[in-house]
Design a protein that fits this description.
three-stranded antiparallel beta sheet; Arc Repressor Mutant, subunit A; elongated; alpha+beta; 120 residues
Length: 120
């Protein structure tokens, strides 16, 4: 189970990879996409990436480019499935809300019809 911060890092990595299986990103890139509450630091991002790597969601290779720390991140099948399941869960919730709305409208119309029938 991912922590909230790890989940946010995972979403940021997926957004940076644009649906590809891998990408080259810096900690600043990840922190700029994550919702900021001011608590994002490079160390926390690195710890979250280490946790994601040990959990089998991503492969992370640390390198340097022009003196800046960079991560070569490859998404594993479990990591891709985690993102897909989150999208599926969101879609299912929206579908249930839509069905509830349709049910409410149908009930309202049915009530109006019944009132019209028994009014006379």
């Amino acid at each position: 189970m991912l922590s909230r911060y790890e989940h946010r890092v995972m979403n940021a990595v997926f957004a940076l990879c644009d649906g590809d299986n891998g990408c080259l990103v810096s900690p600043l890139d990840i922190m700029s996409i994550m919702p900021g509450d001011g608590a994002n630091t490079a160390e926390k991002v690195e710890n979250a990436l280490d946790s994601l790597q040990s959990g089998g969601y991503v492969d992370v290779i640390t390198s340097e480019r022009r003196g800046e720390k960079m991560y070569v991140i490859s998404l594993k099948p479990d990591g891709m499935e985690k993102i897909r399941s989150a999208k599926r869960r969101r879609r299912d919730i929206l579908y249930k809300i839509f069905l509830a709305f349709i049910g409410a409208v149908a009930t309202f119309i049915f009530t109006l019809i019944i009132k019209a029938i028994f009014k006379n």
